[in-house]
């Protein structure tokens, strides 16, 4: 550190001396030229100077000092000639000495720039200034061979920058001397700091994700609690209906209300189906006004076949009747917001089917899953389409509206029987499934409500 300070002090002392010498040199040359201009015009003859061979200066013959031509042998002034030769020699020596000074000063500055020679690169407390970020500086220009006046400004700027950098190095050296740290220690410290920052960032990301997951779990939990409360309330209402509480309609005079298109609201028959070779299903239904498609009024799923028996109208497609995942399109239209009575029959013999709307047959066909019996042991759901037995509902295929008097028989009913249900002249119950409060269970917030009288439904 002392050597660096000494170098800087030498630089600060030598630079003013150098500038003063250059100024003195210019002053002496100007004075000599002034005396020459004031003297009367002389015709000079140059002779070899009695100096060292490398320092001798010879003037071209036949040319005057002022640039005019002359002839040898003219009048001469030995005194003036000697004085001019001495001044020129002195200038030469001054320039040579200043070049040596500049060369030495440049070498010292370069040494100060690179630090002490032979210093340890990895020892305790050894820190190379050139490797410190932010201390890099372009190398100082070597002025050897260049005119000193052309590099004076650059040298002054370099000295100023160097002095500032030396002050920074002194401060850093003081800090290092207080707490010596080697390069390996600095790398380990930096690596530890980066790991700490990474751990903090990872902790924040995990906290953010945990917060989102917690919020999602809370939402799911709240929804599950809400659905459980709705199911419990619906169960209590069903118990009241079954008990015949005064003010409620008689058994069977109720409707299943599905007000929202969800994947959890539905009705479920507690009883299952036996193996069937013929079937008739009848119901009253009213679709919600403006609903896009009727949805799925009912679906029956068995293990291995989710579409064993389905009535569905999805989007703008026609209503479809599925048996064992085979499809028949029904020419029915019930999306006007009013009550409609719908019956569908099917028999395994040739797969013949019929479709009735409001007591009138609207369609008939055959080849729908012929000779395939309806499998037993499944689950019949009202208002949802099943992708697995009793579950995996799709909200886009849900029924939105009201259902009533869903009955199922193991035979094909006569057209007159189906017409009597519509015109209120008869109300037979299904021998396989019948519409009573004991057989239908509401799930997911669906509700049982009083049913409008039959004439009101007919003329709705």
UniProtKB/TrEMBL annotation:
SMART domains with a match to the protein in the record: PTX (SM00159)
Region (Disordered): 114-149
UniProt GO molecular function: metal ion binding
Range of residues in the leader sequence: 1-32
Cofactors demanded by this protein: Ca(2+)
Stretches of the chain forming a coiled coil according to its record: none
Record InterPro entries: ConA-like_dom_sf, Neuronal_Pentraxin_Related, Pentaxin_CS, PTX_dom
Entry superkingdom: Eukaryota
Domain Pentraxin (PTX): 252-454
Bias (Gly residues): 114-125
Keywords, sorted A to Z: Calcium, Disulfide bond, Glycoprotein, Metal-binding, Signal
PANTHER family attached to this UniProt entry: NEURONAL PENTRAXIN-2 (PTHR19277:SF1), PENTRAXIN (PTHR19277)
Protein name per the record: Neuronal pentraxin-2-like isoform X1
Gene (name only): LOC116946168
């Amino acid at each position: 550190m002392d050597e660096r300070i000494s170098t800087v002090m030498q630089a600060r002392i030598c630079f003013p001396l150098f500038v003063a010498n250059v100024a003195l040199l210019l002053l002496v040359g100007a004075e000599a030229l002034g005396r020459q201009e004031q003297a009367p015009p002389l015709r000079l003859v140059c002779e070899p100077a009695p100096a060292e061979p490398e320092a001798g200066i010879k003037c071209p013959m036949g040319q005057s000092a002022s640039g005019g031509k002359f002839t040898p042998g003219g009048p001469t002034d030995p005194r003036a000639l000697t004085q001019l030769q001495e001044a020129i020699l002195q200038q030469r020596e001054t320039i040579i000495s200043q070049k040596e000074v500049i060369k030495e000063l440049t070498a010292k500055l370069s040494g100060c720039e690179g630090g002490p020679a032979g210093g340890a690169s990895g020892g305790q407390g050894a820190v190379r200034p050139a490797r410190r970020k932010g201390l890099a500086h372009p190398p100082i220009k070597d002025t050897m061979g260049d005119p000193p006046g052309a590099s004076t400004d650059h040298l002054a700027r370099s000295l100023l920058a160097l002095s500032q950098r030396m002050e920074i190095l002194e401060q850093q050296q003081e800090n290092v001397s207080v707490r010596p740290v080697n390069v390996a220690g600095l790398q380990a410290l930096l690596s530890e700091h980066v790991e700490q920052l990474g751990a903090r960032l990872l902790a924040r990301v995990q906290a953010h994700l945990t917060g989102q997951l917690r919020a999602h779990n809370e939402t799911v939990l709240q929804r599950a609690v809400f659905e459980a409360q709705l199911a419990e309330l619906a169960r209590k209402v069903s118990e009241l209906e079954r008990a015949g509480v005064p003010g409620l309609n008689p058994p069977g005079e109720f409707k299943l209300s599905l007000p929202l298109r969800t994947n959890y609201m539905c009705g479920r028959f507690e009883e299952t189906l036996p193996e069937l070779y013929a079937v008739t299903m009848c119901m009253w239904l009213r679709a919600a006004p403006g609903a896009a498609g009727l949805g799925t009024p009912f679906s029956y799923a068995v293990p291995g076949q989710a579409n064993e028996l389905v009535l569905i109208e999805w989007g703008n497609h026609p209503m479809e009747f599925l048996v064992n995942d085979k499809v028949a399109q029904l020419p029915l239209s019930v999306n006007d917001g009013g009550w409609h009575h719908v019956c569908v029959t099917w028999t395994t013999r040739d797969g013949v089917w019929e479709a009735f709307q409001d007591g009138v047959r609207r369609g008939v066909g055959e080849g729908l899953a012929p000779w395939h019996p309806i499998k037993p042991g499944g689950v019949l759901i009202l208002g949802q389409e099943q992708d697995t037995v009793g579950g995996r509902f799709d909200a886009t295929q849900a029924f939105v509206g009201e259902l009533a008097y869903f009955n199922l028989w193991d035979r094909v009913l006569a057209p007159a029987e189906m017409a009597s249900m519509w015109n209120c002249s008869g109300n037979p119950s299904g021998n396989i499934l019948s519409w009573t409060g004991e057989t239908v269970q509401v799930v997911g917030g669906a509700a049982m409500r009083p049913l409008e009288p039959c004439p009101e439904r007919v003329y709705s």
